[in-house]
Every structure is written in structure tokens, then in C-alpha cells.
Amino acid sequence: MMKKNSVLHLITILTFAGILGVFSVWNALAPKETVSWNENRTLAPAPDLSPSHIFGGNFDDDFETWFSDHFMHRDFWIELKSMTRLGMGAIENNEVYYADGERLVSRFASVDDTVVQSNVETILAFSEEQNITPNILLVPTAAWGASETLPFGAWDIDQEALLSRLADAFETVNFIPLLNDMPNDPSLYFRTDHHWNEQGAYYGYKAICRDVLHKEPNRFRYEDAGTSFSGTMYSKSGAFWTSPDTIRTILPETPVTAVTTLDDGTVLDGVYNPARLKEKDQYTYYVDGNHAREDIHTDVSNGKTAVLVKDSYSHILVPYLYTEYEDLILIDLRYYHAPVSDLLTDDCDLYFIYSLDNFTSDPNLAFLR
Fold first, then answer.
1. pTM assigned to the model
2. Centroid of chain to Cα 241
3. Quick one: which of 13, 305, 326, 333 has the fewest CB in 10 Å?
4. What is the pLDDT of residues 319-332, one digit of tens each?
């Protein structure tokens, strides 16, 4: 009996090892992708097989990362994991909540007070040095706007209290109280992405018209530009069964002509890049996404200039703002390290436009000078 059990154990071990070996070889020889469109990122390249790297480098770590990134049917396993978590009662995956209405909402659970203090002090010192009063527009995230859709047990910081605290800190400049205009409404944010949508951005424009431009907002209409947008929360959560969002073109009732010049010299006719609608991140349809600097010249012909120090939340706001200025200069301090002060004139409007979570965590405002 003992001998029979030993044989069975050996057969079991050999069978398991054989399956594992065949599967590993099959996985290694299967065609490899360079990009995961669902995860919206570049996959790890094959590790260097040189002797120096194998014996003296990080070959083990590189191989593990490469093997994981190119595991067969990777998207299926990622989606299965997310679906299993949801089925077992989990309310989030990778810090993305499964909210009502097929809505995927990023957690905003903590604030780096050191970064907050530094960013506030940097902006106040810069405004004093340049003798300019900047306009501060901080946008609450979907964790606030879609709070009524969050699952039971979801917890995020009190964004209204944080905005009130920042309003006090910025009392000597023009802090735009966005929540005076913007309702707590999930429809103002994309369902699969972390940005506000064209409806949400309109409230930002409306607040700017009231507190900066001192005029009534212009009128706009909207056209669907793309109907297959699956954003960053879709990629991060693994909830690949979620239906996509719609990207819309924002058209002023009184047409405005514009030319956008990107930092690499590329020129766009208008403030949109239709070619981006063929890519995974269709939000880059708006002003071509992230660049160090973008210059927009319009036929508004009022001599007014706006300088926007910003993150990507401002991109969908630009199709509203460009109807108010002859020139706009968009600066992203993650990539732009020349003096912003060189861009300022005596009569320009200076804006700082950030999502609230990014403003409280991004250290790149330290490059402001």
C-alpha cells in the first residue's frame, strides 16, 4: 500500500510539473504585445540575456516582471480577478470603487499636508514677487461628485472641508469657490475616468465668468466625437466589462477660430486632435493631452491673454475658455521647467487649475518661478 501511494504521489508530481512546464514554454513562445490597451500602459520588454545581466544585474526581477506582463490572456485574468472580488462583496479594486450605474470612482483617502503647505506658500510667494493676483480653481474629484453612488463602506476625505481650508489659505488671492456653482452630481464626471466631463467643466467656466471675467457665460452646443472612451479608472480597476463613455466636442454658439501650437512644433487646427479618438486615452482629444507648453491663438481679438498653470483637468475646460481670450498659454510643471514669470504681462490673467487630489499631492509646483 505504501509503495502504491508513493507511485501515485510521483505520478501526481510529474503530471503537475509537466503541465507547468508545457504551460510555461507555451506562454514564453506565444506572441507578445508591447502595449496593454486595457491597462493603458507599455508592457515590460524581454530581459537582457547577456551574462553580465544574468549574473550581475537584476535578471530575476526583470524576468518576473516580463513574465507577468506577458502572461497568456492577461486581460482575461485581470478582469476575472476584479469580477471575483466584486462577487465576493469587495467594494473596490486597486483603490477604485465599484459605484452604482457602472461608475468607477477613484479613492481620495489622504492628503499630504507637507505638499499642500508647500504648494500654497509657493503660489503666494510667486504672486507677491510678480505683483500679480492669480486665480485658483481646484476641482473636487468624482469621489465627491459621485458620492451618492458609492458602495456602502466607502470612505474618502471631506473634500468640501478641504476646499474651505484652502480658501482660507488663499485669502489674499482670488480663490474661485467652484462649489457655489457646481452641484454634487455624478453626471458631471466620466464613469470610467477620473476627469470631469464637458458638463462638469462648464461649471468651472461659469465660475470663472463670474469671479474673473465678470460677464455672463457664452452659449455652447455639444456633438458626440467618440463613443468608446474607457478611461483610467477602467484600466486601473480591471472592470473591463464596464461600458464606455462618450467624448463630446464643445462648440461655441458664436464660432471661434483657433490654432494650437504644441511644444514639439505640431500645429492643430482648433483645440482638438481628432486623431486621438483612435487611441485608448480619448481624453487626449482635448488639446492633445499632456504637454510641457501649448500656445493657443484665437480670432477673439480682444488683446487678452491667459496663462494656465495646470494639470489635465484644465484640458476639457479650454474649449470654453478659448472663447474669452485672444491667447492662452498652457503650462504643465511636470514637464515645463523654464521660468513661468517670463510668460506674464501686466494685463494677463494667471490661473492655477488642478484637481483637488492632484494639487494636494503633486510636488511639481516647486518648479514655479
1. 0.84
2. 20
3. 13
4. 999 999 999 999 99
